[in-house]
Amino acid sequence: MNEAVARRSVWRMFGRAFVVAWFLLGGIGHFVLTDMFTSIVPPFVPYPRGMVLFTGACEIAGALALLYKPLRHIGGWCIIALTVCVTPVHIQMLVEADKYRAIGAAALWARLLFQPVLIWIIWASTKRAANWVLRNPLRGPGYEPRAALANRSRAAIASSCVAALGCFRGIRFHASSAAIL
Fold first, then answer.
1. DSSP label of 84
2. Which residue in 63, 84, 136, 160 could disulfide with 23, CB within 3.0 to 4.6 Å?
3. CA-CA distance, 170 to 181, in Å (whole number)?
4. Dihedral sign (CA 123, 36, 32, 106)
5. Which tens digits make up the pLDDT trace of 76-105?
6. Dihedral of CA 124/59/37/51: which sign?
């Protein structure tokens, strides 16, 4: 592994650790501080308490999914979707900033503006590597990508055709002559 790949791998690991800590602690907070979280749910969201508990469970499940490599990529996309879905809460708090003077308008703006950065960190730290198919543990040993399999099949078909033509004409061809086709 070269130095650039190793450095990228370390940054991805730190990004995942940050995201796991962020959503695990946030999800636990939904259960510990349920009344506080319920008070900031926008009025148009039905069943505020149930929604707080549901999103807390989703945050914890998403954080745990990032720890299990086969679920990491889909877990990242689920956490991104959750982050987008809770953005209206941040907007509503900013609209009603006078209710949240203890937090402060600057902190509310910072939290809202951090959302795209957080989404990027989630995406960058959970995206699949370029050769993910070859390293995917769910595929098993000996798995070949479709393109490699197709190229091997074409070579086998060409070799068979050359051999068949050679037998038909009474000429003997070697299998390596299929590369000429």
1. H
2. 63
3. 19
4. positive
5. 999 999 999 999 899 988 988 888 888 888
6. positive
